Amino acid sequence: MRLNIAVLPGDGIGPEISARGVEVMRAVCEKFGHEARYAYALCGADAIDRVGDPFPEETYRICREADAVLFSAVGDPRFDNDPTAKVRPEQGLLAMRKRLGLFANIRPVQTFKCLLHKSPLRAELVDGADFLCIRELTGGMYFGEKYQDNDTAYDTNRYTRPEIERILKVGFAYAMRRKRHLTVVDKANVLASSRLWRQIAREMAPAYPEVTTDYMYVDNAAMRMIQEPRFFDVLVTENTFGDILTDEGSCISGSMGLLPSASTGEGTPVFEPIHGSWPQAKGLNIANPLAQILSVAMLFEHFGLGEEGALIREAVDASLDAKVRTPEIQVEGGARYGTKEVGDWITAYIAAK
């Protein structure tokens, strides 16, 4: 297979983990006889510094013409600490999602046997947890009407029936492929937008009689994820709730550096780790590249290349079992490995198989 890949390293640790993801992709392509071409593009604070736009037209063109986007991270404290900034790195990520029509964010949450001790939760609670969070990605408060002055600010949480129906269809489809259990997360006791979500979900559920569909307020879902993460199979929710819940999910696996994601919809799909740019770690060779590498596995699987994705997952599991890990998940007294060394080990494992 020929693949044209847009690579957006972005900010902070982005370039370091991006390099590891590309190396793994090259190793897999060589192993299985695929050809991948890579086009690099600017985004985030790096793009603002260079051209004044967090998602330049040239970047959009490269993404639009690619088969897939391998994205890393955006964000910079220069903008985080300036509430008056009119242009922000995160606007580039939102623009990419909106302009490519990527309304469905798929975030798997799973545990690794050898890392159960790294979760802040008890091992018996998280052992065996394996669920998907499906987050609506182009609606809600992130994209609704906004206003701010010195005394008043608001963000509008607007959703339409077509937006809700299409993301619920994604949720039901994934539930059908898994354990046939879908949890719709909302705040229907308070928010009108959530009541529409629940109304439409109830209308659609009878079309999927094989799926057990339940409904949960977001505050209860957040608590249940910590108390009983094995309860969940597929969760589907709106943009803001999904952003928060999926970060909470990193507590189950033990590190945000372990969680990949895919954003899909009308245009070129984007594959990215869920963590941010971690600017404090930039250039220190300590960032965990596994979420980026597992995003590459999701990329291959998206194109029906399951064997390729499985080999990457096998290599990641092998690296963890061999204690080839970055500092935040290394066992006490274990050898020190950096971002590059972990990526090199996984690449070598794939090449040797």
Describe it.
The protein is 44% helix and 19% strand. It is of the alpha/beta class and 353 residues long. Strands 2-1-3-12-11-4-5-10-8-9 form a ten-stranded mixed sheet, with helices on both faces. The longest helix is centred in the N-terminal third of the chain and has 19 residues, at 14-32. The radius of gyration is 20 Å and the shape is globular. Helix 1 (14-32) crosses helix 11, helix 1 runs parallel beside helix 13 and helix 7 (161-177) crosses helix 8. It has two domains: 1-102 and 266-353, 3-Layer(aba) Sandwich (Isopropylmalate Dehydrogenase); 105-257, 3-Layer(aba) Sandwich (Isopropylmalate Dehydrogenase), CATH 3.40.718.10.
The overall strand count is: 12
The sequence of SSEs as H and E is EHEHHEHHEHEEEHEHEHEHEEHHH
Helix content: 40-55%
**Annotated CATH architecture of the largest domain:** 3-Layer(aba) Sandwich
Distance between the termini: 20 Å
Principal-axes geometry comes out as globular
Biggest beta sheet summary: 10 strands, mixed
What does the average pLDDT come to? Answer: 95
Quickly count the helices: 13
Q: How many structural domains can be distinguished in the coordinates?
A: 2
Task: Please name the CATH topology of the largest domain.
Answer: Isopropylmalate Dehydrogenase
Protein structure class: alpha/beta
Provide the gyration radius in Å.
20 Å
Poorly predicted regions: none
Q: Going by CATH, what is the homologous superfamily of the largest domain?
A: Isopropylmalate Dehydrogenase
- Strand portion: 15-25%
| Spatial order of the strands forming the largest sheet | 2-1-3-12-11-4-5-10-8-9
Highest-level CATH class of the largest domain: Alpha Beta
